[in-house]
Amino acid sequence: MVTSHESNADRGSSGSKPQMGQLIDGTWRTADELDNTPEREREPTAFRASLGTEAHPIEPDRYHLYVSRACPWAHGVVLVRALLDCEDTLSMDIVDPHRRTDGWEFTPEKSGCTSESQIGADYLRELYTAAEPNYTGKVTVPVLWDTENETIVNNESVEIMRQLASSLAETAGIDLYPSALRTEIDTTIEDLYGAINTAVYRAGFADTQSAYETAIAGLFEALDRYDQRLAEQRFLVGQQLTLADLRLFVTLVRFEAVYYTHFKCNRHRLVEYDHLWGFTRDLYQLPRVAGTVDMDHIKEHYFRSHPDINPSGIVPVGPVQSFGTSHDRESLDGIAAIR
């Protein structure tokens, strides 16, 4: 089973300094406090419940999301919410993109951010301890919150994507996770996770030249492979838009602005891949997708939250990207079916 939090990717090689703090038995410890301590390896608490159960029945207006616009894992969930057009029945709070020593924070005075609407929290970690006072583990986005039970349902991005897609497909009239394709979708998501989604992090946080070069070799082999896969088909699985496409998109849309420079994934630019670049523009131009992409938040998070990589904290003003240009992907087999 894929485990796809940014917390699992947003760290260096084994044994290197952690890039973010965490809760230990309900108490916050910074990354410096965790460095080289046994507590860093404690077994984490799990929030892996499902919608549609007795504890968490499918009900409109009952559930709430916590996300970062910068985080690719959270972005996948936001895309499902947008494509299913359920913003009115699934509310959402947005954390500050700059993750500081105290973790994800709510800063409503900042553009694109919100206050915390459910319990009046200042930090995301307060939601975790509200759900489990002795919580041990990373404090990550996305979070799916049950407003009636006042607890976290799930904080695993791909599971939230599957659950929302499955439970809301009939109401939305859009099926991003069709039963007949689920095995292939899941297999593709699993491959993307290791080959592309986390490969950029392995390159960016590599602490040896050999580790970096190994990560880069694997990443660009996978990009070549998926570029060829998309040469004659519009989407990754079957002839329709699915969750697999969204998982690829969240990495590609960040590639030139962040991964190419900040993580040194610079063997090729995305625009040099005819089919991957066309695919990225195709998805970006689907209804409601562009509104989920906040490049200011994306760049601020990466360039300011990783002082080991970018000590100055300077955020680049570029690049200028043309996600809105024509792509001619409609000529390939495949139907987006998004209204």
Structural summary, described in words:
Helices cover 37% and strands 7% of the residues. The chain has 339 residues and is α+β, with helices and mostly antiparallel strands. The protein has two domains: 6-172, Glutaredoxin, CATH 3.40.30; 179-331, Glutathione S-transferase Yfyf (Class Pi), Chain A, domain 2. The radius of gyration is 19 Å and the shape is globular.
For the biggest β-sheet, the strand order reads: 4-3-5-6
Low-confidence stretches: 11-15
Shape descriptor reads globular
* CATH homologous superfamily label of the largest domain: Glutaredoxin
Element order: H for helix, E for strand: HEEHEHEHEEHHHHHHH
Largest sheet: 4 strands, mixed
Total strand count, please? 6
Mean pLDDT, as a whole number? 93
Q: In CATH's first tier, which class of the largest domain applies?
A: Alpha Beta
CATH architectural type of the largest domain: 3-Layer(aba) Sandwich
Strand content: 5-15%
Q: Output the radius of gyration.
A: 19 Å
Give the count of helical stretches: 11
Find the CATH topology of the largest domain: Glutaredoxin
Structure classification: alpha+beta
